[in-house]
Amino acid sequence: MLRTRSRPLPAGRLRVATAAVVAWVSGVGGVAYLAVMVNWVVAALAAATLVSYVFAYTPLKRHSSVATLVGAIPGAFPIVGGWAAASGGLEFQAWALFCILFLWQLPHFLALGWLYRQDYVRAGFKTVSSDDSDGRLTFRYASLYAAALLPVSLVPTLIGIAGGVYFFAAVLLSGGFLYVSSVAARNTTRSNARRLFTSSLAYLPLLLALMVVNRAA
Q1: pLDDT of 19-63, one tens digit each?
Q2: Do 77 and 125 belong to one domain?
Q3: CA angle 201-27-72, nearest 5°?
């Protein structure tokens, strides 16, 4: 891929065997550290993240665009681990946060995948945008996920982990995210796709920051 060819591994500055050793030592060592220093719930979530990413999502990328959905699962596990680290358990609230991250990732990646669709095809990775040169299908999916994200983003107030200010701010943020996705679906251009991608980068930290600042009493 042109986008990643200068990174150490594809550029040949790092050997595959060395990368594998570092990855396994880091992964196993990290899970063990969490088990000893935090709790077993967090360690189990970290292990599930590692296994699902490496053994499910990564190989599936060469076979089906469903890999995008599968990859969003380990992508959303870390916030659940953060909740479990702070509370010691996996309450319903943690899974509400999981759903927000899961849905957010899909428009985020669909925009990126369409912008770099030729790169993904060159690498042999299957994405929704691989055979979608005009982008209509890709951004219809992005709009669908953004529409689902809007009500889900309001759940933190409804279950008592965020206040009213967060609720109304989430309506504006999620509504704006849906609008940008819909614009890209109606008029698929590189500028609209890039606008959706950059909007996704701003959306998540703003939403989570508001949740922290306006946490429920």
Answers
A1: 999 999 999 999 999 999 999 999 999 999 999 999 999 999 999
A2: no
A3: 35
